[in-house]
Specification:
The complex is a heterodimer. By secondary structure, chain A is mainly alpha-helical. Helices cover about 75% and strands about 0% of the residues of chain A. Chain A has twelve helices and two strands; from the N terminus they run αββααααααααααα. In chain A, strands 1-2 form a two-stranded antiparallel ribbon. In chain A, a hairpin with a 5-residue loop joins strand 1 and strand 2. In chain A, helix 5 runs parallel beside helix 10, helix 7 crosses helix 9 and helix 10 crosses helix 11. The two termini of chain A are about 40 Å apart. Chain B is mainly α. Chain B is about 75% helix and about 0% strand. Classes of the chains: A mainly alpha, B mainly alpha. Chain B: It is a multi-pass membrane protein. Chain B: InterPro entries: Bact_Polyamine_Transport (IPR051789), MetI-like (IPR000515), MetI-like_sf (IPR035906). Chain B: This is ABC transporter permease subunit.
Chain lengths: ~290, ~270
């Protein structure tokens, strides 16, 4: 009987699930635990990480300049998420419920830009908005402005870049949720005398809320870390938490401090995912 | 205004709105394409000096750029194959067999999906440094498999949710063993999910900037090459390569899509 159990269940489950389990343990669990440990470590005089316990890294997290950047980063991520919802919702609604045969093409047109490397597209924005860029040239040519406008290196430019990079992550879950909407429900609501507005707020919105929730998770969290957008378009004036971490692991060369800063991002992620699950969000829909 | 007229204006507003969104999405790509034909030769390559095809020719003399593109393709192909293999096996096993710790594996799977990429990037960098794995092609492949495996598993799982166990039983009743049944019966049924997962893994790998940035060492991928060149201004040959890549992917998709449509009709 024992032997049968081994052949029928234990062996095949080891063969199938074993590799991915080992992979996740070695390359996800162990590295993250190590970062947690490192956040309590010190540096020796050669800037090497030594295993000497300290709380200094955590004390430094409360530096006023850092706190300003956390606030700014959360503000940028928040604005990005709100703008994505406001634009992506009506947009997804229109393309998901169109009766046109070109529906599939309309959907693909959202994905296609993302096959071009994201860095070079962000650089494209920089070229477009620069003082000698297309927009400024056009504005001056049309005599709307006499001098080039400084459109780059503002917080708003960083938000624009974040919205640009993360927009499809809002569209995809919304599109899926809206496409699932049963047309007869909308008719029923109208038949029962509901006006457009109340149909929207009482029928459509609750039924598509799951799409808004998963989209928001997929937009807000990455926006805290996309340091290259803040670098290229914000020019150091609108850093996000990702910039702080990047600096400690590259030029700053203070890995324990960088590790402690990463713990902030991990905690924010955990908190948001918990809220998401409380709201009834399905983890699987974040991945497809 | 008549009812029909009202509906028409509504439709018009909708179309105008969607057009604006598409313009927003394609604007930087237009900039890239136009700049790939710019005859300028001086940094930062922003002033328009006339139209030329030169950069598409010169591109093939830029060894560093071409080899970075080669690296990107090698890493994407190898990491997609690995992620698809262990991901498919894993998804199947987690669906079919009972064992302890399933919840833990599930939890670990969600981490690379929701955690900011930079955190995964610095964690892997710290691990590789600590255990002395030299950074390069190997570490890039290991990292890329790590962030794409969950997406393969989710895709295969979505396919498994409608899976009919009895066809496996039938196969075994007819005398096929477990391994043959897996390859001859299970895999073909799961194929669309596996293909979807693999495609996603490949796309993620090709475009990855943040994680590669931390684990690359001296091996440059194409996105990292772009990152390097951004400091001094992206040269038109980089734009030319991007344009060619985009054209390539669009042609590929049109071919596979039209093939798909034909099959659907038949």
């Amino acid at each position: 009987m024992k032997k049968h159990q081994w052949r029928a269940n234990t062996l095949p489950s080891l063969v199938t699930v074993g590799p991915v389990t080992l992979w996740l343990l070695f390359f996800v669990a162990v590295p993250l635990i190590y970062v947690g440990v490192m956040s309590f470590c010190s540096l020796d005089q050669y800037y090497n990480v030594t295993f000497q316990f300290t709380l200094d890294n955590y004390k430094r997290l409360f530096d006023v300049n850092y706190i300003k950047i956390y606030g700014q980063s959360v503000l940028i991520a928040f604005l990005t998420t709100i703008i994505c919802i406001l634009v992506a919702y009506p947009f997804s609604f229109l393309i998901a419920r169109t009766k046109s045969k070109k529906k599939m093409i309309l959907y693909m047109l959202v994905i296609i830009p993302f096959w071009t490397n994201s860095l070079i597209r962000i650089y494209g924005w920089k070229t477009f908005l620069g003082t000698t860029g297309w927009l400024n040239t056009a504005l001056q040519f049309l005599h709307i402005t006499s001098e080039p406008l400084e459109l780059l290196f503002h917080r708003g430019t960083t938000v624009l870049g974040m919205v640009y990079c993360l927009f499809p992550f809002m569209v995809l879950p919304l599109y899926t949720a809206i496409e699932k909407l049963d047309g007869s429900l909308l008719e029923a609501s109208a038949d029962l005398g509901a006006k457009g507005f109340s149909t929207f707020f009482e029928v459509i919105l609750p039924l598509t809320a799951s799409g808004i929730f998963s989209g928001s998770i997929m937009v807000f969290i990455p926006a805290l870390g996309y340091f290259f957008v803040a670098d290229i378009l914000g020019g150091g004036n609108s850093d996000v938490i990702g910039n702080l971490i990047e600096r400690q692991f590259q030029s700053g060369n203070n890995w324990p401090l960088g590790a402690a800063l990463s713990i902030i991002l991990i905690l924010i992620t955990l908190l948001l995912v918990k809220i998401y699950q409380k709201l009834g969000g399905d983890m699987e829909s974040l991945g497809v | 205004m008549s009812r029909q007229g009202k509906r028409k204006t509504k439709k018009g507003i909708g179309i105008a709105f969607c057009t604006c969104v598409y313009l927003f999405l394609f604007l930087p790509i237009l900039v890239i394409v136009v700049n790939s034909f710019n005859a300028t030769t001086s940094k930062p390559y922003l002033t328009w000096k006339g139209f030329t095809f030169d950069w598409y020719v010169r591109l093939f003399d830029n060894g560093a750029l071409l080899s970075s593109f080669g690296n990107t393709i090698i890493i994407a192909v190898v990491s997609t194959l690995l992620a698809t293999m262990i991901g498919t096996l894993g998804a199947f096993g987690m669906y079919k067999y009972k064992f302890k710790g399933k919840g833990v594996i599930d939890g670990l799977l969600y981490i690379p999906v929701v955690i900011p990429e930079i955190v995964l990037g610095i964690s892997l960098l710290s691990l590789f440094t600590n255990v002395n794995i030299p950074r390069g092609m190997l570490t890039l492949i290991l990292a890329h498999v790590t962030f794409s495996v969950p997406f393969v598993i989710f895709n295969v799982r979505a396919r498994l949710s409608g899976y009919d166990n009895s066809i496996e039983e039938a196969s075994m009743d007819l005398g096929a063993n477990r391994v043959i049944t897996f390859f001859e019966i299970t895999l073909p049924v799961l194929a669309p999910g596996i293909a979807g997962g693999a495609l996603l893994a490949f796309t993620l790998s090709i475009d990855d900037v943040i994680i590669s940035y931390f684990v690359n060492g001296q091996t440059k991928t194409y996105p990292l090459k772009v990152m390097e060149s951004i400091k001094s201004g992206v040269a038109p040959d980089v734009n030319a390569l991007s344009t060619l890549i985009l054209l390539g992917t669009i042609v590929l998709v049109v071919l596979t899509q039209s093939d798909f449509l034909k099959k659907k009709k038949a």
